[in-house]
Amino acid sequence: MSTEDQIAPLSPKTSPATPTITPFTQRKESNSSSEDNRQDSWELVEDLQGLTENIQKPEKLEGLLLKKRKWPMKGWHKRYFLLERGILTYAKTGTDLKKGRLRGRIDVGLSVMAMKKKSMCIDLDTEDSIYHLKAKTRDLFEQWVTQLRHHRTFRQNEITMEPPELLLQSDPTTNRRVFTLLIQSHCITHTLSHSLPDSPTDASRMQEEFCRLAGTGEYEYTHACYTVSGIFILKSICYWPKSTKPIMTQIFSTDQEVLVGSRPLRQQVSSESRGSIPESLSEFFDAKEYLLSGSSSENEASDDDSYVSDVSDSTSVEFCRNENGVAKEILSNGNNCAVMRRDRLPSTRMNESVNLWSILRSNIGKDLSKVAMPVQLNEPLNTLQRLCEEVEYCHLLDTAANTHDPHMRMVYIAAFAVSAYACSFTRAGGKPFNPILGETYECLRQDKGFRFIAEQVSHHPPVSACHCESKNYTFWQDVRWKNKFWGKSMEIVPMGVTHLELFGDRYEWSKVTSCIHNILSGQRWIEHYGEIHAKQAFNFIYVCICVCLSRSGALNANEVEGMVTDSNGRVIHSLFGKWNEALYLGKPPSATCIWRANPMPEDHEQYYGFTQFAIELNELEEGLKALLPLTDTRFRPDQRLLEEGDIAGAEEQKERIEVLQRERRRVLQENNMTHSPRFFKRAEDDSWVSNGTYWDLRKDPGFSKLEIPVLW
Fold first, then answer.
1. Is 624 helix (H, G, I), strand (E, B) or coil?
2. Could you tell me the sign of the dihedral formed by the alpha carbons of 549, 552, 558, 561, in that order?
3. What are the TM regions of this chain, as residue ranges (predicted)?
4. Exposure class string for 249-279: b at 16+ Cβ within 10 A, else e
5. Which among 292, 690, 220 is positioned nearest to 459, based on CA atoms?
6. Which of 346, 358, 353, 349 lies closest to 195, judged by CA?
7. How far apart are CA 642 and CA 450, in angstroms?
8. Which pLDDT score is estimated for 40?
9. Confidence of residue 544 (pLDDT cuts 50, 70, 90)
10. No. of helices (H) and no. of strands (E), the chain
11. Cα dihedral 606, 611, 614, 620 sign
12. CB 563, CB 571: distance < 8 Å
């Protein structure tokens, strides 16, 4: 998206009589090719740019549109929509709408809106859900786009002009978005780093700008602050024209947390002058990182009550700690495992301000595999290690392998498939590092009875392959992702099939779509939705696990339902539970727990929300260094520095590593060569499988005696 397409900053001096939100239709392209590209790309509809009392009340619009569903059945379905005063409601039919049988309600003014002209699609991201709409004809599409623009601007102006005491009567989620819009519409805001100043030039420039505006006598301001060892540290400055003093006084006199940027700031009204402004100011800063290389929303979840709380079990995980605080697992046979593993990371997560919207605003609806992102958004693990996290509950596969009843075996396989999502519940705040092409990772766990290897086999598109084996099973998959940002949420759609072999029996299943909400502000949270279809290749025994659509905090949040059927579709076993807690076999209250998530470590919120298993994945024991290839993720310096809390060092190393990767790619292209993975090969079905050489080479002659590419 070009510079002229970017969203203009909100200014307190602009008061357009009509909405200025259609820059896309006002440009003339130089040739038909540019026009085609523009028609086939997502266009972001801009927000209101100032207040006005002259926006005409928009006309009511209603009719049929197509709406994409994500659960329980994918595809486009007709829904009857009504757009009135900036609120979009819908029902299955017009009659249902008149009778109040609504399927959903969308505040268009508080949503991020994007459109794609070629496919006649309109997307609305409300933080809680993403709504994908589609018109059947070009005229209908243009009519809805025009009216949605007008209603959206009208609604945003209505919110900013409405007395704050009325707005505060709404629900907390709406409060958060309303207060953000109020502040953006009335104020100029600088949100500052929580750390002590490390950029005197930027601090002086920002202070000079603030003092200049304050000196004109036309602005008033407030600030939020805190103290460190008695030193006054400024967190934010917010200033506005005196003409808006009445509404701003009401806003800041309320006992509310106003979100500025991406952080909640407790505002303190102050009458101090420029003398009270410290020099501890630093601006937002951006860094570079490549995000993992997005489906639909349906707000029509089941109203059934949750029975998970009605069932209990005695499943537990036992740990003991030595005098150094290092945890060691107690095996089921009573023996202590040989390896003493750490129970926390070297450093807590460092809180850094990031202007994420400036990066993502021009990428609505696009695949984010090539979008530069700040390293502060990462967690100190990468995608290869995330794949290893999926086998944390491998004991379920051991149980399945030793279960002779084929239907009960599928029950444990289903539990294993669901357990792979448990670790994500506390991890919505960070993203894993993208592996470098040729990067590897091994995990040898004698206590769990498996050995695991993974390799990044492709860069564009990014493809990660892994292989895990034990005496009871072989598990492998190659995973590629499509990520799409919709304005407030990001959808992650995995592609590929997961494979499992138990003593000659083959099983396969697919993964579901994930969505991270509140990307830009507020508390991020993740949901998974779709269906996991697991099947046995030859015996026609099937299991269908439906990961239900549910909002965070809802009664049925994170619920899972499933069934094991025979070849005739007859239900043999029923399953229910929550993907972040437990899975049960049977019907409540007599159901049996077949899997329960391990307890979280103490203070896990401060350590990236990592589980105990995740904490152990990047640990580099002294005796392991000589055995690993230098391409192993544990040797990656940027990830190691982030784990140790050195963000600046991590960013510097990451940029250096990316330069090396680009240079290797350039050399390959100049010589008409392609990269060949070291430990994986392509199968006949175009998937990636292990070539069976890793562990043999590790043993003889050893990786230290082999020629290994320099990745970092």
1. helix
2. negative
3. none
4. eebbebebebbbbbbbbebeeeeeeeeebee
5. 292
6. 353
7. 28
8. 66
9. confident
10. 15, 34
11. positive
12. yes
Amino acid at 101: R
What is the model's pLDDT at position 215? 59
What is the chain's mean pLDDT, rounded? 75
pLDDT at 187 over 70: no
Residue 146 CA to residue 4 CA, distance in Å, equals 21
What does DSSP say about strands 431-433 and 378-382: parallel, antiparallel, or unpaired? parallel
Task: Give exposure, 650-687, as e/b (b: 16+ Cβ within 10 Å).
Answer: bbbbbeebbeebeebeeeeeeeeeeeebbbbeeeeeeb
- In the structure encoding, which two tokens stand for residue 64, read together? 């049929």
* Cβ-based burial of 603 (10 A; exposed 0-12, middle 13-18, buried ≥19): exposed
Where residue 638 falls among pLDDT bands split at 50, 70, 90?
Answer: very high
Using one digit for the tens of pLDDT, what is the confidence trace for 384-399?
999 999 999 999 999 9
* DSSP notation for 580-592: TTEEEESSTTS-E
CA distance 79 to 71: 15
Residue 50 is given by DSSP the state: S
DSSP class per residue in 359-409: HHGGGBTSB-TT-B--GGGEEEEEHHHHHHHTTTTTHHHHHHHT--SHHHH
List 703's β-bridge partners, or say none. Answer: none
Q: pLDDT-based confidence at 371, cuts 50/70/90? A: confident
Distance, CA of 427 to chain centre: 9
What stretches of 594-675 show up as alpha helix (H) in DSSP? 612-617, 637-643, 647-670
Determine if the pTM surpasses 0.85: no
pLDDT tens for 551-573 read 445 567 888 989 998 888 889 99
Task: Give Cα 634 to chain centroid, integer Å.
Answer: 24
- ∠ CA 301-425-304, rounded to 5°: 25
Indicate the pairing of strand 505-509 with strand 490-495.
Answer: unpaired
> pLDDT of 332-353, one tens digit each?
334 444 578 999 999 999 876 7
> Could you give the 3-state DSSP secondary structure of residue 683?
coil
69-120 confidence digits (pLDDT tens): 765 456 899 999 999 999 999 999 999 999 889 988 999 988 889 898 989 9
Q: What is the DSSP annotation of 283-351?
A: -------BPP-----------PPP-GGG--------EEE-TT--EEEB-TTSPBPS--B-SS-SSPPPP
Q: What is the pLDDT of residue 84?
A: 94
- Indicate if the alpha-carbon torsion angle 562, 565, 571, 573 is positive or negative: negative
Contact 300, 73 (CB under 8 A): no
* Tokens of residue 628, six digits: 């690993």
Name the nearest CA neighbour of 115 among 187, 34, 44. Answer: 44
CA gap 299, 124 in Å, rounded = 13
Q: Give the model confidence (pLDDT) of 126-171 as tens digits.
A: 877 889 999 999 999 999 999 999 999 899 888 877 655 454 444 5
For 467, the enclosing helix (H) or strand (E) is: strand 463-469
Q: Which helix (H) or strand (E) holds 39?
A: helix 32-39
Residue 172: per-residue pLDDT: 47
Q: For residue 425, what pLDDT band results from cuts at 50, 70 and 90?
A: very high
Please report where in the chains the tokens 């997502």 appear, as a residue.
42
DSSP output for 485-529: E-SS-EEEEEES-EEEEETTEEEEE---EEEEE-SSSS--EEEEE
